Amino acid sequence: MATKIYVNLPVKDLAVSKDFFAGLGFSFDPRFADENMECMLIGEDSFVMLQAEPYFRTFTKKDVADAGSVTEVIVALGAESRERVDDMVDAALASGGRPSKDTLDLGFVYTRAFEDLDGHLWEATYLDPSALQA
């Protein structure tokens, strides 16, 4: 049985964040959208709930981390090709994102990483399926 995952992510400006991720090729489910949140589709069973920070704060009694200065999580996404990794990260950088570490290219695995507009860390990785069989 597949387990669905919903990552709740606080953002400073919901509309700007939605535009940023739409520019990376992600789509959104309007059934789960309002002035407080947008549901970004990552995969068949994977979603990122972009939430306006004041709304996000209603779900926790803890302080909300300032992703611009501390790291709480790195969201790693598998890509279907090296080209998709490059397309995603290049689009993020062109839209105001920042590189967060050096490119890792081991031949069988290729990873690039960026910070989104709120400082959240993302990695895009391609793993050559033939390497898994070797």
From TrEMBL:
The lineage of its organism: Bacteria, Bacillati, Actinomycetota, Actinomycetes, Streptosporangiales. It comes from Planotetraspora phitsanulokensis. This is Extradiol dioxygenase. Residues 3-127 form the VOC domain. Keywords: Dioxygenase, Oxidoreductase. InterPro entries: Glyas_Bleomycin-R_OHBP_Dase (IPR029068), Glyoxy/Ble-like_N (IPR053863), VOC_core (IPR037523). Coiled coil: none annotated. It comes from the Bacteria. The keyword Transferase does not apply. The keyword Oxidoreductase applies. GO terms for molecular function: dioxygenase activity.
